[in-house]
Structures are given as C-alpha cells and as structure tokens.
C-alpha cells in the first residue's frame, strides 16, 4: 500500500513538472493576451501611392500638409489594408489603430511613399509640399517624417506580422522610368547603347551596398518586432507592358526594365532566404506571376493593374509644381487587390502551419500522463527511486495515505487545467 501511494505521489509530481515543460514559456500570458497585431511598413508600393483616397486627404490643404498619413500617401485602398487573418473578421483597414481601438486586432500603418532603406532606422524622411493657393499666395512646406521603426515604440503587445516592400527607391525605379519617358534615351548620337542600360550597369555595380542595406532593414525589424513576429516581404511586379505600347516607352526599354525587375526580385528573395537560414522568421512573397496572368497587367497593357505614366499633376500630389504625377507606374486599385491576394495566401499558409503545430502539441500534452505513469511503473523499484523513498518519514507516508483520494482529484484537475491552457494557446496562436 505504501509503495503504491509513494508511486502515485512521485508520478503526480513528475507529471506536473512535465506538463509545465510542455507548455511554451509565457503560455498563460498568451492565453490572456490574444490581440492580433499587424504592422505594415515600406515604400510607395505598400503605402498605396497612386490609389486615392488617402488618409487625411479630405482636410484643407493648410491642414493636411502636417498630416503624416496624407504626406506618406497612405491609401485607404492599399493592399496592406486588405489583408485578412484567419479567425479575424474583416480586413486590416477595419482595425486601423488611428481610427478604432479593438482588443481583437490592431493594425499599425507606417509605410511611406518614396521611402528608402535609410528611412527605417537612420534618417527621417523629408516630405516637401508646394502649392500656389492664389495669385499672391504660395504655400511651401518641409516636414520630417518619423523613422519607420519608431512605430514599434507605439505598439503594446507581441507583434504577429510585419509586412513591407523595400528597395525599389534604393535602386532608383523612379529615375529609371523617368529616363525612359523623357528625351533621347541613347548615350550619344550613333550609339546603340541606351541610357537606361548604363543606369542598370551602375545599379548592379553598387548592389552589394544596397543588398546590405536591405538585409539590415530585415534584421532591424526582427529586433524591434521580436522573434515571434512573422516578417512578410513582398516583391515587385514587372512594370511595363512587354510590347512597349506607350508612346513614351519603347519595346526595348520595356524589356530592359522588366528583366531587371525580375533580377531584383531574385536578389530580394535570396536575401530573405539568407535571413531564414540564420534563424529569422521571415518570408518572401512573389507577385510577378499574379501580375503576369492573362497576358500581363503591366502599365500600358489592355487591362492594366499599374498606372501609366501620368504627365499632369493630380490633385493630391504633394508638389503641385512642374509636370509628372507621383501616381505614375504604381499599382492601381486592381493591382493592390493582386498584392493582397498573394500576401493573404502566405498568411493563410503560416496560420495553417501554426494550427498544425498546436494540434501536435495538444496531442502530446494529452498523452503525457500515460507516458509518465508507464515510466514510474518501470522505475519505482530502481535503486535511485528507492533512495528517494527512504528519505520519506513514516508521518509523511501516513499523511499521504489519508489524502490519497484528494491527491487523485487534484491530479485530474491539474491535468484539465493544463489542457485548457493549451487550448487557449492554440486559439491565441
């Protein structure tokens, strides 16, 4: 009898220890803090440049030139705002932290049109506005945007996802398109080498620096967001119709641009893979295939998901002087939807993997008591266990005999409690 009681006593203690080790650190906190937190950073391809309406645009010009959302050209129709998380109703735009306060989900939108890698941690991005309000009055301002990683100082809780596009401005996408669209594109009379080809040569000659800067952004984000955060890096679509249908873009120029976009995406993917191999929780999402469907949806195509080059200033352009709109060669609303489809597929894949992992963990937890009982049955008479048993006093054994039923009941309750915690962890994951 005493031997059986001691076996039960030791078994209960070992099961309790094992169950504590099965539960992840912070499981109790995770069960109580299940708010989904998503942070969207990056450049104009994430902010939604070229897709009005922008947050803050309905304010007067004198007011919105100090509105960071409008200065960043963060669109109400951007693809980050269309993201969906399984088991969270609605889209991220429904949980914009500046417009609603939900305990279910919080979305922090920090992407800025024109952002380069240096604007994440090193420098504040400068936004200049210019508009003639009347014959005698011109409003000209300079505004310094916060560094993008500063957004994490406002986040309360564990970040689940960070999405971004970055690097396009570092490799001068805008300058490349401008070169294609303006003036003679040849280096000099009689040359068969285009100016754009020289620009591409220069781009790749200095790409080691750009590569290091892009990787630095990824590692800085993981450091700020935490190792639990899934970083999703989206690539860029080919920009121009392969036939060069626009009067400003030749077929040869379109081919050069598109080939180098593909090359750039491969470089981004290789950086992401390198980071993954080093233990980072980061994923690459290719969008080229989505934009290439049905013959292609590039700028100047018959069913374009990317804006053509727009020569006239649009009403929401920050700088109303000169020619050419910032909307040019950016995804339109359909393009944003295409981005969202690609990134949503990746999020679903990640969430399914997490659910599968939680299910395996739950099964392990449910079978743990049986495994431990079997171990105790085999080892209770072993010398090391006997040594432990001999340290118990007769009084302790007598106390154990009188509380045997209570011990059994407590063990069951503990098992159920831990299982319940695991279910909460699964739901919170």
From TrEMBL:
* Family annotation (SUPFAM superfamilies): SGNH hydrolase
Q: Does the keyword Hydrolase apply?
A: yes
Keyword Plastid part of the UniProt annotation:
no
Q: Known InterPro entries for this protein?
A: GDSL, SEST-like, SGNH_hydro_sf
Q: Which UniProt keywords apply?
A: Hydrolase, Signal
- Give the annotated active site: 44 (nucleophile), 330
- Write down the Pfam families for this protein, in alphabetical order: Lipase_GDSL (PF00657)
Q: Which GO terms describe its biological process?
A: triglyceride catabolic process
Renumbered to this chain, the signal peptide range is 1-29
> GO MF terms on file?
triacylglycerol lipase activity
> Which CDD domains does the UniProt entry name for this protein?
SEST_like (cd01823)
Protein name per UniProt = GDSL-like Lipase/Acylhydrolase
Source organism (scientific name): Ruminococcus flavefaciens
């Amino acid at each position: 009898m005493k031997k059986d009681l001691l076996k039960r006593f030791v078994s209960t203690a070992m099961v309790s220890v094992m169950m504590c080790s099965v539960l992840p650190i912070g499981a109790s906190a995770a069960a109580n803090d299940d708010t989904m937190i998503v942070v969207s950073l990056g450049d104009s391809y994430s902010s939604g440049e070229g897709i009005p309406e922008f947050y803050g645009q309905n304010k007067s010009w004198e007011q919105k030139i100090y509105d960071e959302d409008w200065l960043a050209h963060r669109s109400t129709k951007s693809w980050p705002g269309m993201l969906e998380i399984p088991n969270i109703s609605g889209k991220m735009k429904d949980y914009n932290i500046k417009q609603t306060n939900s305990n279910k989900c919080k979305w922090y939108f920090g992407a800025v049109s024109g952002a380069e890698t240096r604007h994440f941690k090193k420098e504040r991005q400068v936004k200049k506005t210019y508009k003639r309000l009347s014959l005698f009055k011109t409003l000209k301002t300079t505004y310094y945007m916060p560094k993008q990683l500063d957004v994490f100082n406002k986040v309360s809780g564990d970040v689940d996802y960070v999405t971004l596009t970055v690097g396009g401005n570092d490799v001068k996408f805008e300058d490349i398109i401008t070169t294609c669209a303006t003036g003679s594109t040849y280096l000099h009379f009689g040359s068969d080498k285009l100016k754009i080809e020289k620009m591409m040569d220069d781009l790749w000659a200095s790409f080691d620096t750009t590569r290091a800067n892009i990787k630095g952004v990824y590692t800085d984000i993981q450091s700020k967001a935490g190792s639990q955060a899934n970083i999703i890096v989206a690539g860029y679509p080919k920009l121009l119709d392969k036939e060069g249908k626009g009067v400003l873009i030749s077929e040869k120029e379109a081919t050069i641009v598109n080939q180098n976009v593909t090359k750039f995406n491969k470089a981004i993917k290789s950086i992401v893979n390198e980071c993954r191999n080093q233990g980072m929780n980061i994923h690459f999402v290719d969008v080229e295939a989505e934009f290439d469907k049905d013959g292609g949806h590039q700028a100047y195509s018959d069913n374009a998901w990317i804006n053509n080059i727009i020569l006239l200033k649009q009403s929401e352009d920050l700088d109303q002087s000169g020619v050419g709109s910032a909307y040019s060669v950016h995804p339109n609303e359909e393009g944003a939807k295409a981005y969202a489809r690609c990134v949503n597929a990746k999020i679903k894949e990640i969430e399914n993997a997490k659910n599968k992992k939680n299910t395996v963990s739950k099964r392990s937890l449910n079978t743990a008591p049986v495994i431990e009982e079997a171990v105790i049955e085999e080892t209770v008479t072993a010398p090391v266990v006997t040594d432990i048993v001999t340290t118990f006093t007769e009084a302790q054994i007598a106390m154990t005999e009188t509380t045997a039923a209570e011990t059994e009941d407590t063990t069951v309750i503990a098992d159920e409690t831990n299982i319940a915690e695991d279910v909460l962890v699964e739901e919170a994951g």
